[in-house]
Amino acid sequence: MRSVLQLRVANQEVGTLDFEESNEALRRLGARRTASGFVFWPPAALQLKRQTGDWQPMVSNVRADIFYDDNAGFQLGVGRDDTFYIPGNREYEQNLTLAIAWYGTDEILQTIEKRRNGGPAKLWIKCTGEICVVPSDPTREVLRGPPEQFHRDFRVEYSADAWTSLMENVATIGAVLVEIPVRNDLPSEWSSIYTALKEAKRHIARGGDDGWKACVAAVRTALEEWRKVEAEDLGPGWHAPTPTDRAARSKAQRRDGLRWHLLQYAHLAHHSPSDHWERNDAILAFATLSALVAERDP
Predict the structure, then answer these.
(1) pTM
(2) How far apart (Å, rounded) are the C-alpha atoms in residues 118 and 164?
(3) What is the C-alpha separation between 246 and 243, in angstroms, rounded?
(4) What span, in angstroms and rounded, lies between the C-alpha atoms of 151 and 132?
(5) Cβ within 8 Å of residue 123, ≥6 positions away
């Protein structure tokens, strides 16, 4: 069980800080979409006990360096909370929720999704902040004492169901991230395929009519190079149309051909065990369907 951080100031224990993992806490703060990605508030509970003397504790300048908790330990971003927290007027401990805002990009979400691989989301949070004393009487001229630093590493795990529900507010269906993995140990015969893939990515980032056309042309090049390495195996009963028939097909008809083949690919999911399917299969099916619907633009 993870231990909480005991907060001390002026040689006295005055409270605790802990990052929460419960589904309820995650829903209470949540996340939302931004123009470039997301903002997420990792739920953290602060308890401060009101003192009976001339001073009260104050917590401020909380920072959270956030990493994915696996062997690689990639840093995902930094969350900050510029609020200051002091106990209320009651005599017992106050339960406060920190507002640590972590802003990130779609690429960060993609990294998290790849690493959790359908399981819980595991974060390693290095939390730092300041604690000091302030007068119990707010009319006094001295506003605060010298701050003391606190720090603690927290490892938190959000359930797969809770994390998925949270991401539904962030990764809207209108935006699909497509990962293009490029290995360092590619077989030499595949190098031209990945070169064409990277060229397609460059053209789609450039945009404009010329960019879109060049992207599609680079995809064709990649598929032609792939055919040189591995010929398509379409299974029994398949007969390729004649060159005359192919030339007569419109762009919409060719799109429908992709739709038909995607249906056959997805059809197998109802008739095979779950362990026959991987994350890349889901990405292929979902991203292709999303692109087809977007191109159809109903």
Answers:
(1) 0.68
(2) 9
(3) 5
(4) 14
(5) 42, 66, 67, 68, 69, 76, 155, 156, 157, 158
The residue written with tokens 């369907």 in the block is 289
**Burial of 200: CB neighbours in 10 Å, binned 0-12, 13-18, 19+:** buried
- The 12-19 sheet, strands edge to edge: 5-9, 12-19, 44-48, 94-97
Per-residue tokens: 185: 């140990």
Of 97, 288, 263, nearest to 176 by C-alpha is 288
Calpha distance 18→46 (Å, rounded):
7
Helices (H) and strands (E) in the chain, counts: 8, 11
Look-up: residue for tokens 């159809």?
296
If phi over 0 gives left and psi between -120 and 50 gives alpha, with beta otherwise, what is residue 122?
A: beta
**Angle formed at CA 267 by CA 275 and CA 258, multiple of 5 degrees:** 120
Q: What pLDDT digit, counting tens, does each position of 56-113 carry?
A: 999 999 999 999 998 777 899 999 999 999 987 665 567 788 999 999 998 898 888 8
